[in-house]
Amino acid sequence: MGAQPSSADSLAAELRSAGHAAIDLLADFLAKLPDGPVFRPMPDTARQRIRDLALPESAQPLDALLETCRADLMAYPMGNGHPRFFGWVNSPPEVGGIIGALVGAAIDPSCAGGDHAATYLEQATVRWLADLVGYRLDGGIGLLTSGGSMAALIGLAAARHRAALEDGWSVRDDGLQGGEHAPLVAYVSSETHSSVGKAAEILGIGRRHVRTIRADARGRLVPDEVARAVRDDRARGLRPFCVVGSAGTTGTGAVDPLDDLADLAAAERIWFHVDGAYGALGILDPRLAPAFAGMARADSLALDPHKWLRVPVDCGCILVRDAGVLRDALSLVPAYLRTEQGQGFGGPPWFAEYSVEQTRPYRALRLWLTLAHVGRSGIVASVGRCVDLARGLGVLVEGSGDMELLAPVGTSVVVFRPKPGSALPESELDGHVRALVHRVQEAGRCFVTGAIVDGHEAIRACFLNPATTEYDLQVVVDEVRRVSADLRSESHQVGRGHA
Ligand SMILES: *Cc1c(COP(=O)(O)O)cnc(C)c1O
CB within 8 A of 145, min separation 6: which ones? Predict the structure, then answer.
């Protein structure tokens, strides 16, 4: 080798200098995050500056690009790293995960399959996930996905495939276009996440064949009503094939009666899919665990480590009881990808054969570093902490006198609103709550989202950040009260102006 530095040497040198600067930048960013607003709407100029970024003709030094990161990108984050972010189901970053993203990008394999470390790390971390939620994987398979939506698509694809096989035909050969087979029907609740319905649409089931059973007052699916719908559909010549239970609905955190649904699915010989994307981890809290009985009986279980487990986006997971049926449903190996197990690059059956994705990112590395860094006891403590916080806000709301809960505090979600009363008639409350949510978001003191609970507009707060404090809960109550009063006085003034 000559004196000329190799390109690998110069890559390493650049990574070393820019990498250290980047870590300092990230550390400063995260350290200061709690002092700033949770969210702030972007000024037009900043929006424009980012939108108009031009592809540079020549290579740019990384320190200049990092400066753009600092000044333009980090100045307007989504907000989910802040301890008073209670929106949707977006968790804050975790140090292990941040490092994991960096390390994973440096190795950057495709995790389609093959005899390299990433394959076995995915097997190990998926086993960890299955163990955490009490799902037995022997004979089954689990794999990481882009999220809960992809997990649902894969689970329902397996369900659809099995139903056709049982009826003596192949959905892969025939598709659903011919109309020669009885239409397949899926059963969900009115609280089931939209991704499940979307999966059914993509799979050609059709919205008309997704029975949406109205949840009860506690947001739970009623197994007897599912059973009745299944009987009715069979009587009409349709083919029930899948019932979906939620292990923590996104709206209110309600957990469906999973054990009863598992009984029903077994009796009717239909697939039982459980959507645990948001809430399955709730099983780790002894106060909640009994509600999750039956989750382990699912034919497929969707998880989302990029939610409660704080793995950097993206990281979802699907666990499937019968590995064979999933491989049968999705394996399509072109000649150029054919390998032999134990020979050359082969390795165990490729993840890509069980998935929609071919080239797959190194999610396992982010998952491994996050979970191993936090540790099992840390995961359990963090889940319990989030449940405590949600219950704490529930107590504050109930004791407030001017606000009310719209559903029992489920898992780690609280849904509430100002009490209907003389200050604000019920008829004006929905519009008021909608406006209030936007105003709270814009003000940046805390971040909540809206939800519809039993037909009423609600303020929704979801707890996933163990660093949130009791003080932060009081901020939510104070801020909702302040914004509500502001809105009422504004509309009062407008009203007077018109008079
Ligand atoms: C978030 C969520 C999903 C969708 O998962 P993505 O990771 O966003 O694709 C599905 N179901 C539930 C209950 C969820 O909370």
Answer: 151, 154, 316, 317, 318, 355, 357
Which residue has the least CA distance to atom 10 on ligand 1?
148
pLDDT in tens, 468-494: 999 999 999 999 999 999 999 998 787
**Does ligand 1 lie within 6 Å of residue 304's CB atom?**
yes
Query: Is the bond preceding residue 224 a cis peptide, omega within 30 degrees?
Result: no
In sequence order, which residues have a C-beta less than 8 Å from that of residue 400 and are 6 or more positions away?
477, 481
Q: H-type helices in 444-469, by residue range?
A: none
User: Rounded to the nearest 10 degrees, how much is the dihedral formed by the CA atoms of 44, 45, 49, 50?
Assistant: -30
Cβ 274 under 6 angstroms from ligand 1: no
> How many Å apart are CA 177 and CA 170, to the nearest integer?
12
Which backbone phi and psi does 98 adopt, to 5 degrees?
A: -65, -50
**Cβ proximity of 187 and 226 under 8 Å:** yes
Give pairs for 230-234: CB < 8 Å, separation 24+. 230/185, 230/187, 230/264, 230/268, 230/270, 233/185
Backbone angles phi, psi at 355, to 5 degrees: -135, 170
SS3 365: helix
Q: With 0-12 CB in 10 A as exposed, 13-18 as middle and 19+ as buried, what is 303?
A: buried
Tens-digit pLDDT profile for residues 154-167: 999 999 999 999 99
Residues 160 and 183 sit within 8 Å (Cβ to Cβ): no
Amino acid at 383: V
Q: Count the neighbouring beta carbons within 10 Å of the beta carbon of residue 88.
A: 16
End-to-end CA distance of the chain: 89
Q: Report how far apart, in Å, the C-alpha atoms of 138 and of each of 11, 127, 135 are.
A: 43, 10, 9
Ligand 1: nearest atom to the Cα of 148: 5
Identify the helix (H) or strand (E) that includes residue 185: strand 184-189
Contact residues for 148 (Cβ-Cβ < 8 A; gap 6+) = 193, 195, 275, 277, 278, 302, 303, 304, 307, 316
Question: Which atom of ligand 1 has the smallest separation from the CA of 149?
Answer: 9
Structure tokens at 489: 């006085």
Model's pTM, two decimal places? Answer: 0.97
